[in-house]
């Protein structure tokens, strides 16, 4: 029987290993600790059987529970859809002009619209809806085709100059220079007049000549005072906002070649509720106008307290 | 890391003898059969040996009772204290309202952005542990640690059901009969009730206690409430009922940290070996008094120890300094007519002085040394700073976030509009009217998304509900010609106190042509 060796300083048993006089003490692990270690192994085996875990050549093992992260995502999306279904249903049956601006339904529509805007609209109008040259800024108070919530919804559904769109917003300015309606000098005069409307240029002989040309060629759509006409999407030329730029070159180019901005008819691509939400969002950006006429249509069922 | 061994090399103590009853976890002497081969230890794993501490009475035991009642009363009772805060806030004195992100503690209400108060309290708790350790050693472990308190509680249950130490050892060794099974069932049922009550009390801190209790029993409470109670019942049952001193010896990091913090000036429970050794039974020592020390080797200090160690081996990680061995030894010393304090609270420094025959130092000198004073200074400085911050904080606030995209907006009349998300904070538990106004930015007007632009003004008034933040979408319009500049939003509460807050922000404008 071997003598058990005790370390002198600590009075602890040694395990018998020795390296250059340095010995290892036996500081035993508690037995229950060992059992927790075994328990983790058992858990790991169970986990590998139950869940996708083991990498194989083409794909991993599937696990007997059939759990997948895609399935988890689908479940969560379903749950979110279900959660939203009440709001969506309420929005579907409420005509947009009857949405109470203070209501939670309107708030929901605006936040839904903000999300849809990020997906569908930012490519042209920008993340802040501030637009860029040729793509209107949706935050300001200048509207080509109307800025009340109903008009915005119409524009969204039918688009602008959508080819084959029966009800699309449509108008076309003549290309006065390219088609030879006005000479270069005349276009220069009209440019001077148009820029003088908003104070970009002082009144001059050229602008006075341009005034007569404007009356003859442009006032039909833009009005004698140049304030535009929304039925034709004719821009207000007397304000500070210029979709295609206000410099002489820009204005000359517009008169010479005309402009033909297009927006798709989103009614063909998105469901009506999403379009409604987009309209609510765009209207909420700070430049939205009040809808004046409330349609008194007894046929339309209105949710009084959505 | 082991604390310094208080026993000098080659001491009189017979280590082999004292190891006889020591707990294996700390004594580390295998009581198992000798190893199979040369130099191979019997086992690399330690079998769990149940500790059966004996009942003892004495001043320290009574102090432990007191601490136990106070701490348990605080834990179980606090959620039920009511505190009137008016109609807009909960009336529970201590409430961690996670759903609404509010923390109530009597008259103090903490919002998430004021979490530094809680962080400060945690830092104080940490330094407080250092302070206590440097002044009175492992007093936290011995008296106030939840593991200690609940272990103590469960050991009293053991005593209540199975009798004292010897009866319990006998029952443990006895074969499983119906009687033993019935006793075990009865004991574990009591464990379970205590554990459930413990877990149940925890969730009361997170919701209105009476309501939650009703919902809990009606089955209407949130799943997380049941899950929390189940987990805490399980851990209390397991850690308090079965693991006990194993938690202190193997699981808890605090004893390990404390071994690094203890020094020769720390108060520890010490066996005064120069007085006690060599040990001998009362009979022997009465026969030859000059050959034996005061220790009569009655083993009472080991029998009462809740972690099953032998304090006569010196300071060790298993000693939580609960001082029950002091009670036990004092009683024996009284019975045999010797002075008390063979086992006593003392610092190693004092032990050396005493062993050398110097008079003992006053207690105050033992407690007050530089380390303690520094900890106390830091601890109270943080406390005073927190109190000052608490007293000086405003209950009205404003934050402003300007839109970055687009940074500004040209309107058709040439004026410039900027958009802001403004948040008005009403931290009072009553609704207040608040006035938001523009300071600076000449000619600027503002309106919100829920009002008409025609009604734009330099200031607007909104009612902010009790204890909430009101977000506002604010449009500020400045006439043509205003350049980029800074200005401020100011919020003023329209009540008697008239608290106000303001924040500076930027107004962006196109560059002048």
Question: Can you walk through the features of this model?
Answer:
The complex is a heterodimer of chains A (306) and B (513). Mean pLDDT of chain A is 89; it is low at 302-306. Helices cover 42% and strands 4% of the residues of chain A. Chain A contains ten helices and three strands, in the order βββαααααααααα. The longest helix of chain A is centred in the N-terminal third of the chain and has 25 residues, at 69-93. Chain A has helices at residues 31-50, 69-93, 104-120, 122-125, 149-158, 184-197, 205-217, 219-222, 248-257, 272-283, and strands at residues 14-19, 22-25, 29-30. Chain A has three domains: 14-67, no CATH class; 77-170 and 262-283, Cytochrome Bc1 Complex, Chain D, domain 2, CATH 1.10.760.10; 184-257, Cytochrome c-like domain (Cytochrome Bc1 Complex, Chain D, domain 2, Orthogonal Bundle), CATH 1.10.760. With 306 residues, chain A is mostly helical. In chain A, helix 3 (104-120) crosses helix 10, helix 6 packs across helix 7 (205-217) and helix 6 (184-197) crosses helix 9 (248-257). In chain A, strands 1-2 form a two-stranded antiparallel sheet. In chain A, a hairpin with a 2-residue loop joins strand 1 (14-19) and strand 2. By secondary structure, chain B is of the alpha+beta class. Chain B folds into three domains: 1-30 and 245-361, no CATH class; 59-244, no CATH class; 396-507, Sandwich (Immunoglobulin-like), CATH 2.60.40.10. Chain B contains 19 helices and 15 strands. In chain B, strands 7, 8, 9, 11 and 13 form a five-stranded antiparallel beta sheet that branches. In chain B, strands 12-10-14-15 form a four-stranded antiparallel beta sheet, with no helix packed on it. In chain B, strands 2-3-4 form a three-stranded antiparallel beta sheet, with no helix packed on it. In chain B, a hairpin with a 6-residue loop joins strand 14 (485-493) and strand 15 (500-507). Chains A and B meet through strand 1, strand 3 and helix 1 of A and strand 1 and strand 8 of B.
